[in-house]
UniProtKB/TrEMBL annotation:
Domain DUF58: 203-367
Phylogenetic placement of the source organism: Bacteria, Pseudomonadati, Bacteroidota, Flavobacteriia, Flavobacteriales
Organism of this sequence: Pelagihabitans pacificus
Ranges that cross the membrane: 12-30, 36-56
Domain of life according to the entry: Bacteria
Protein name: DUF58 domain-containing protein
Keywords for this protein: Membrane, Transmembrane, Transmembrane helix
């Protein structure tokens, strides 16, 4: 049975059969071809048996699929396949990797040929758009000799499971730039400081542009030239990422749900905030408080946040903002920065939740983050060529205007806002965080 399962006929073999069939047909009119056709048939049969002997006398192919411990959601994740041949002849191989069912890809194939004892590597990428468990099936390699009559199937590494976590690659990208203080390279703005905070850092020499109110006169008298006190952002401030998991966050953009955009941004932002010595926590809510992670200032705390984010899922119900307010009032007693990821498509939906948002903003610095509908923006930017297109464009402009009115309404009640495209969420969130820290609002 092992032989039968690994035994395949090469597609070239059917061309050989077609040629023999043509010879036998021609022999009807040219009888001299008839014995030649039988001779070719016997030769093909001998080569068929010889090809089986070549492929099955040794275990000719070795292969290994290298998977990362975790896949990163919404990113291109590299997968590496190493393979080599032990055959003494040139080997033609076809690699078919059974990808997880979530990718819905059934045409994966990589063709290659190997010389005697040659080793090679083959890389490809996958882009998951849902968190969860992804099972890679068999790594199938079909080998054939230069005769290309028979193929032998080799099977390696059956059913490997890899979890897909929130975007670890995106987090590492911002992590590197935060450590090297180069966040502006990926679009993060440099925020001009208004005044300064009161956490002392060091005494340094005065340079043009320093605030003269920070001159340290004792140090100036001692060094006989102007010295100033340098202050830094206040540290160890509690910051919470609040994720709405209600039905409004199920809307997809570029194959990724709004919830996953919020989760990826929360992970990257939490890492940056921890590197800047602030406390970070997380809340996920809909009809109930699904997850609550108190704000802690430890780098290892990021693993806790990552595991909690991995298990978050959207609900099909409207979220209870009153419950969120009651939970914050009971559990978060210190003034904190609250980043609320949610979405409002109509101003009436915002006005229903506005009393709870206003109440939260009285006790904390609240930033409401909601999303532009990029598909509507594309429709608005397109040309209207008929009456129906004009109607669609007018409705799209109305919805777009409502988003801006919602932003103004929140700002009128003293609530910070971010209205962002889904793909720019992380950058705009970190920008707002840096702005609030620079302005000393918490």
């Amino acid at each position: 049975m092992k032989f039968v399962k690994s035994f395949y006929i090469h597609s070239v073999f059917f061309w050989y059969i077609a040629i023999l069939s043509a010879c036998f047909m021609l022999s009807y009119w040219v009888p001299a071809i008839y014995p030649v056709a039988w001779l070719l048939t016997m030769l093909l049969l001998a080569l068929f048996l010889f090809d089986i002997y070549l492929l099955y006398t040794v275990e000719g192919i070795k292969a290994d699929r290298k998977l990362p411990q975790k896949l990163s959601n919404s990113d291109l994740n590299p997968i590496k396949i190493k393979y080599e041949t032990n055959y003494f002849f040139r080997t033609f191989i076809s690699i078919i990797d059974e990808l997880p069912v979530q990718f819905q890809k059934r045409d994966f194939r990589h063709e290659s040929d190997l010389l005697k004892g040659e080793k090679r590597e083959f890389d490809y990428t996958v882009r998951p758009v849902d968190r969860g468990e992804y099972v890679f099936g068999n790594l199938n390699i079909y080998a054939s000799s230069p005769l290309k009559i028979v193929k032998r199937r080799f099977v390696f590494q059956k059913d490997q499971m890899v979890p897909v976590y929130p975007s670890i690659i995106q987090m590492q990208q911002y992590d590197f730039l935060a450590i090297s203080n180069r966040l502006s390279e990926i679009g993060l703005k440099k925020i001009r400081r208004i005044g300064h905070t009161q956490e002392f850092e060091q005494i340094k020499e005065y340079v043009l542009g320093d605030d003269f109110r920070t001159i340290n006169w004792k140090a100036t008298a001692k060094h006989k030239h102007l010295m100033v006190n340098q202050y830094q952002d206040e540290r160890s401030q509690p910051i919470y990422s609040i994720i709405d998991t209600g039905r409004v966050m199920k809307m997809p953009f570029n194959e990724l749900k709004l919830l996953d955009y919020a989760i990826n941004a929360t992970l990257a932002f939490s890492n940056v905030a921890l590197k800047r010595n602030d406390k970070t926590g997380m809340i996920a809510f809909s009809k109930k408080i699904e997850t609550f992670v108190p704000a802690v200032q430890k780098l290892t705390h990021l693993n806790t946040i990552l595991e909690k984010l991995y298990n978050i899922a959207t609900e099909f119900t409207d979220s209870d903002f009153g419950l969120l307010y009651a939970h914050l009032k009971r559990k978060v007693t210190h003034r904190s920065l609250m980043l609320l990821y949610t979405n409002f498509e109509h101003i009436s939906a915002l006005k229903r939740q506005l009393p709870f948002l206003t109440a939260i903003a009285k006790q904390h610095v609240l930033v409401v983050i909601f999303f532009e509908n990029t598909e509507l923006e594309e429709l608005i930017a397109s040309d209207a060529e008929n009456l129906q297109a004009i109607y669609h464009k007018t409705i799209a402009e109305k919805f777009s205007l409502e988003k801006k009115l919602m932003q103004k309404e929140l700002q009128k009640h003293g609530i910070q806002t971010i209205l962002t495209k889904p793909e720019e969420l992380t950058i705009n969130t970190i920008n707002k965080y840096l702005e609030i820290k620079a302005r000393g609002l918490i």
